[in-house]
């Protein structure tokens, strides 16, 4: 009788998650609240109620968290915000900070 032997091989996979960055919108005296809500809904894919809450936080506290992303995506979001703001005549600023 032939006896079969099965060997289970285990392989360790080392996964490095990318470092994350926080994207913040900064308050100014010229960008309209409606435009900030529009930015949050279109660029950051926030529902209207969440976008409005973030906009109010930015207005009251000077800056508000729009999202947390890997570095390249965070940089792209900042570029999109600045481009759309300039096209619409607003000085809206957006920054990134490392999420430690």
Give a quick set of tags describing it.
100 residues; alpha+beta; Ribosomal Protein L30, Chain: A
- Show unreliable segments: none
Helical content, roughly?
40-55%
Number of DSSP strand runs: 3
Please state the CA-atom Rg, rounded to the nearest Å.
22 Å
Distance between the termini: 61 Å
Helix-strand category: alpha+beta
Describe this structure in words.
The chain has a three-stranded antiparallel sheet. By secondary structure, it is of the alpha+beta class. It has one domain (about 20-100): Ribosomal protein L7/L12, C-terminal domain/Adaptor protein ClpS (Ribosomal Protein L30, Chain: A, 2-Layer Sandwich), CATH 3.30.1390. About 40% of the residues lie in helices and about 20% in strands.
Q: Which helices and strands, and how do they pair?
A:
Layout: E1 20-26, H1 33-42, H2 48-61, E2 63-70, H3 71-87, E3 93-98
Antiparallel strand pairs: 1-2, 1-3
Summarize the structure.
The chain has about 100 residues and is of the alpha+beta class. The chain has helices at about 35-40, 50-60, 70-85, and strands spanning about 20-25, 65-70, 95-100.
